[in-house]
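user: can you give me the structure for this one chain? tokens are fine.
assistant: on it. calling the predictor now.
[tool input]
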Amino acid sequence: MRTILAMLCVFSLTGCERDQPLLAGGKPVGHWIERSRDSNDNVRKEAIAKLGNVGSADPAVLPALIVALKDKNSAVRREAIIGIVKYGTEANEARESLTAIQANDPDPKVRDIAARAIKKVGREPNR
């Protein structure tokens, strides 16, 4: 009986019943989403890279990555594309933005990576 009581105390102290926020780089996803809107290019790039590593584990990530596709800094746009590729085939809503980037982005590296990303995201599983 003592063992059961001790286990219950440990579970209640560790917060097993609470939902813990998803972390990326040791910080909650919400922190990185906020930082993705920072005025500093390097901060935005880091934030988008961290969000890209989360993938589809948090539904707030893909909209933040899609917004970052329009960033003024080409390095941030590249990180967003990489993150969308990591998100996988579930990133279908990003295809239209990627297609526009492939056709219109001023940076040839961004256009190239967008072209390669289009082939990897939003595909039907049988293709």
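assistant: here you go. Residues 67 and 99 are 14 Å apart (CA to CA). Helices lie at 2-14, 29-35, 41-54, 61-68, 74-87, 95-104, 108-118.
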